[in-house]
Each structure stands twice: as C-alpha cells, then as structure tokens.
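Entry type: protein chain
Record version: 2
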Amino acid sequence: MGTVVFPDADVKFFLDAAVDERARRRHLQLVENGKSADPGEVKRGLEVRDRQDTMRKIAPLKPADDSTVIDTTGTGIDVVVDKMAMIVEERAQASGPVR
C-alpha cells in the first residue's frame, strides 16, 4: 500500500512475520471459523502466495524505501498497534501532523 496506494504518506509501515507464524495464525483462524485445514497445506499455500506477491510485475509486495518494517512474529496485536502509535506520535512531534 505504501509504494502504490499511499506513496506520499508521512508514515508507512510494513508488517511482516515468519511464515511459520503466519501459517499458525491462519490455521487458527480457519479452525475458529469451523473449517478444517491441514497446517502443512496452510503453510505451503502462504509460501506460494508470498512468491507470487513478491514476484509480480505490477505493485509487487515489498516495503517502501521509507517504511518502518515491523516483525510481528510472536507479538500480539496490542503490542504492534502501540508500537505503531508511538512511531506516529514521534514523527508528529518531530515534523507536525502526519497524513
């Protein structure tokens, strides 16, 4: 989003996590929604999608040069949101309101 949709945003984040972590989260989400899923298949599906997303010619998945990369592996959503809010606040204090 930061490279194509919002290239002029003052603050950009690229959230990432290890494939094993993302597969665990996705598997849990599927199970919670009453769907059966093989954890290995979930992981393989993510790996295929990652390759496709990063290799596509138009808007490949990659962090913008001026984004803050946050590895969310083993980190809860509240911690991630707090970290992002802190970064936005720091930028705002340094340069005025962010957009």
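Comment: The chain has three helices and two strands.
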